[in-house]
């Protein structure tokens, strides 16, 4: 019969900051969908993740999320400027 080690030692957790990961995910998804919403969220979460980086680690991920959030906002502004200069855009539904 085998016995399992029943010591109460905590298992090591990942050293990556959760806010940094959330910022990166929001930045990546914001490139495709809802860039006007997810871009600023990625910027805020990336900035908060950079502040916490000393305690939890993950500065590269936080910086990447921050940069992707900025790219999301810039992409949204450029697309809106192009749409406005070409007479706007309309939806065609139906047959």
Automatic annotation (TrEMBL):
<dbReference type="Pfam" id="PF13828">
    <property type="entry name" value="DUF4190"/>
</dbReference>
<feature type="domain" description="DUF4190">
    <location>
        <begin position="19"/>
        <end position="79"/>
    </location>
</feature>
<feature type="transmembrane region" description="Helical">
    <location>
        <begin position="20"/>
        <end position="45"/>
    </location>
</feature>
<keyword id="KW-1133">Transmembrane helix</keyword>
<keyword id="KW-0472">Membrane</keyword>
<feature type="transmembrane region" description="Helical">
    <location>
        <begin position="66"/>
        <end position="93"/>
    </location>
</feature>
<protein>
    <submittedName>
        <fullName>DUF4190 domain-containing protein</fullName>
    </submittedName>
</protein>
<keyword id="KW-0812">Transmembrane</keyword>
<dbReference type="InterPro" id="IPR025241">
    <property type="entry name" value="DUF4190"/>
</dbReference>
<dbReference type="InterPro" id="IPR055338">
    <property type="entry name" value="YqfX-like"/>
</dbReference>
């Amino acid at each position: 019969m085998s016995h399992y080690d029943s010591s109460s030692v905590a298992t090591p957790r990942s050293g990556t900051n959760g806010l940094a990961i959330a910022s990166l995910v929001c930045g990546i998804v914001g490139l495709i969908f809802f860039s006007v919403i997810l871009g600023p969220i990625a910027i805020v979460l990336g900035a908060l993740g950079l502040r916490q980086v000393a305690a939890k680690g993950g500065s590269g991920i936080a910086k990447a999320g921050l940069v992707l959030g900025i790219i999301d906002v810039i992409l949204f502004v450029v697309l809106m400027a192009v749409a406005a200069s070409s007479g706007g855009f309309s939806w065609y539904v139906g047959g």
